[in-house]
Amino acid sequence: MVTALPELPFPLRPYGPDAGWSYERGTLTGRAGPRQDRFVPPAGDALEPSSDAPRLLGAPPEGDFQLVARVRAGLTAAFDAGALYVHVGEREWAKLCLELSPDRPTVCTVVTRGHSDDANSFVVDGDTVWLRVSRTGRAFAFHASADGAHWTFVRVFALGDAARAGAALVGFAAQSPVGEGCAVAFDRIAYRPYGPADLRDGS
To answer: Where on the tree of life does the source sit, at the highest rank (predicted)?
Structure first.
């Protein structure tokens, strides 16, 4: 069972269904099972009991940070995805995904405050992309990149008491809402104890 990654200054623990998380030679792997997803339909009234997906999360130190990883996902069925994930509460969380949406690999985001929104950003060439979640002051920011050097701004948002130490968990997730499962792999994982200098200049 994965409880720590050498790249991260905080321990991790699994949430949701078992993903068989493992870490070897710089690569974290896991797998969502059939019909596993983390989403609260905007038109619905409640979080369905079956709406859950594997996550591996931990509490970063107080202050600004960046969590970076290159994700590769076995995108077979619509909405299969690998994601970076932020959790503040059962109905307050967000994810930045490489998702088959519905038939092309796409950078997608979901921010949930009671109910989930759902937004597509841009199409990806292939099954791999770099993802980054940052805490900057009292907000979170999502970025994505083709090469890990130049970053495209995806969104910035508030989520609970983001600035308080221990208030937010961050980490990794996998999903396969309508498919038979989705294997994910995260490498080039990095933690930076500071936020981006500018959210929109590509840095």
So the answer is: Bacteria
Pairing of strands 115-116, 105-113: antiparallel
Global pTM?
A: 0.94
Q: Taking 70 as the threshold, does the pLDDT of residue 114 lie above it?
A: yes
Place of tokens 């920011």: 141
141-179 pLDDT, tens per residue? 999 999 999 999 999 999 987 656 567 999 999 999 999
Domain at 13-192, CATH class: mainly beta
Sort residue 201 into left (φ over 0), alpha (ψ -120 to 50) or beta.
alpha
Per-residue pLDDT tens digits for 71-111: 999 999 999 999 999 999 988 999 999 999 999 999 999 99
Per-residue three-class SS string for the chain: CCCCCCCCCCCCEEECCCCCCEEECCEEEEEECCCECCCCCCCCCCCCCCCCCCEEEECCCCCCEEEEEEEEECCCCCCCEEEEEEEEECCEEEEEEEEECCCCEEEEEEEEECEECCEEEEECCCCEEEEEEEEECCEEEEEEECCCCCCEEEEEECCCCCCCCCCCEEEEEEEECCCCCEEEEEEEEEEECCCCCCCCCCC
Which has the closest alpha carbon to 121: 155, 150, 92?
155
